[in-house]
Amino acid sequence: MNWQNIKVSADNTHFLFEGKQIFEKHFIEVLKFHSPGIAPVFDNTGAYHIDINGEAIYSERYTRTFGYYCNRAAVVLNAKWFHINELGKQVYHNSFLWAGNYQENLCTIRDANNQYFHIDLNGHKIYSETFTYAGDFKDGIACVKTASGFYKHIDTKGNYLNNIVFLDLGIFHKYFATAKDKEGWHHIDKQGRELYKERYTAIEPFYNGFALVTQFDNEKIIIDENGNKVISV
């Protein structure tokens, strides 16, 4: 049985394979299987992980468990957040007020002072600074909100990608990211330079060269990477 073909039921209480219930067990809640074939579940004993045979992979029980990413799973125990490995063992000694999922072997967390930063697979902070908020890394770049209240992009060493600040930012999709300044939303390159002069009330990332944007009159249009209007939607 390939774990990738195991589905979660519509009510999130059990698993299906080829449309039929497996494990002969209902849970209070389940989440989908992740590589290498492990799923988070919650029943009357607590939260834990099971393998593709429906068996618990460790004896510990948690308040909440989440999926495995980069061979690490975020878990909660009495309001303390940390990560465990595929043997169910905590991979570092620290705990946090919140922990995300590992992406590209790095993870964003929130510490006891409600500050955000990123840790490596062993729980070590990867740079000295802390932020008001920090998002996941994608292609080696993450969005952060600085103490000044502005958003910037950082690399995996915590260095700013450029010297331009924004009111809000999105992640880079291929070459471009969404960004908001005092005039509105637009797209930028990795140097923080605008691709066009127009501003919008809302925008999406470019998808194969085109992006859906919302004008200030609420009309939705499609633009190309030069900011030219293609069609109204």
Q: What's the alpha carbon Rg, rounded to whole Å?
A: 21 Å
Strand content: 35-45%
The DSSP helix count reads 0
* Basic shape: globular
Helix content: under 10%
Structural class: mainly beta
How many angstroms does the end-to-end distance come to?
Answer: 44 Å
Number of β-strand runs:
22
Largest sheet: 4 strands, antiparallel
- Mean pLDDT across all amino acids: 96
Which sequence of SSEs, written as H and E, runs from N to C?
A: EEEEEEEEEEEEEEEEEEEEEE
Low-confidence stretches: none
Largest beta sheet: strand ordering: 19-20-21-22
How would you summarize what this structure contains?
The chain has 233 residues and is mainly β. The chain is 0% helix and 39% strand. The protein has a domain at 1-91.
What descriptors fit this protein?
0% helix, mainly beta
Describe what you observe in this structure.
- This protein is an all-beta fold.
- It contains no helices and 22 strands.
- It has a domain at 1-91.
- The radius of gyration is 21 Å and the shape is globular.
- Helices cover 0% and strands 39% of the residues.
Secondary-structure map with pairings?
Layout: E1 6-8, E2 15-17, E3 20-22, E4 29-30, E5 39-43, E6 46-50, E7 64-69, E8 72-77, E9 80-84, E10 98-99, E11 107-110, E12 116-119, E13 133-134, E14 142-145, E15 151-154, E16 168-173, E17 176-181, E18 184-188, E19 202-203, E20 210-214, E21 220-224, E22 229-232
